[in-house]
Amino acid sequence: AQSVAQPEDQVNVAEGNPLTVKCTYSVSGNPYLFWYVQYPNRGLQFLLKYITGDNLVKGSYGFEAEFNKSQTSFHLKKPSALVSDSALYFCAVRDIKTGANNLFFGTGTRLTVIP
Amino acid sequence: ETGVTQTPRHLVMGMTNKKSLKCEQHLGHNAMYWYKQSAKKPLELMFVYSLEERVENNSVPSRFSPECPNSSHLFLHLHTLQPEDSALYLCASSQDPRGATNEKLFFGSGTQLSVL
After folding, report:
1. Please, is B16 exposed, middle or buried when counting C-beta atoms within 10 Å of its C-beta (0-12, 13-18, 19+)?
2. What SS3 state is found at A84?
3. Closest residue by Cα to residue B43 from B91, B114, B77
């Protein structure tokens, strides 16, 4: 079975500080991993993805994520948080073995950046 | 704007009503999806259409009935819903008709549905 866990419902960080949003995954084969962001009253927007290659992936708005196979993690990071980064963040995984349409999302983590 | 438009933005309906949600994508994509978003739960994939054919139905109750008349439009017909069906319903699209595993999805803003 494949799944994604986002252990924190809520993350608060002061503006200018580094932020981390955690994600761990479980798949039977090799994962394709994604981060999406949802701003208020909007749909999800793609941030970044890991398919293969370099474990450190850079995405939109200065975000990056590090794929760690031994820890089955794909944490989202940003060196310096902005108030405008406040949103709901979703981690998602696709299992290469099970088929193209099965994208499994986590429950989301609400990030609040405090001015 | 993501190029995926959903209407209406908000919908309140009684359990005996029939209503429809509409999704339109202006991206020339070949696959379209319906997701259900409930608080504190993972997004649930409901249906997938590839080149206007339904390729996935994730054990969704029959009170939800999808329709894809062409590659740009997707509907979700609702009939005799239950209060627990209240949620944000998101439409998404992707380029590759196979829904290739390394593709990103483009989401609409969703329809917030309340069932009374």
Report:
1. exposed
2. helix
3. B91
**Residue-wise pLDDT tens digits, B71-108:** 899 999 999 999 999 999 999 998 876 655 567 889 99
Please give, rounded to a whole number of angstroms, the shortest distance from the CA of B80 to a CA of chain A: 26
> CB–CB of A92/A107 below 8 Å?
no
Residue A101 confidence (pLDDT): 61
Neighbours of A80 (CB within 10 A): 12
**pLDDT exceeds 90 at position A85:** yes
Measure A34 CA to nearest chain B CA, in Å.
8
CB contacts < 8 Å between A and B, how many? 58
Q: Which of B10, B36, B104, B109 to mutate to test the interface with A (most CBs of A within 10 A)?
A: B104
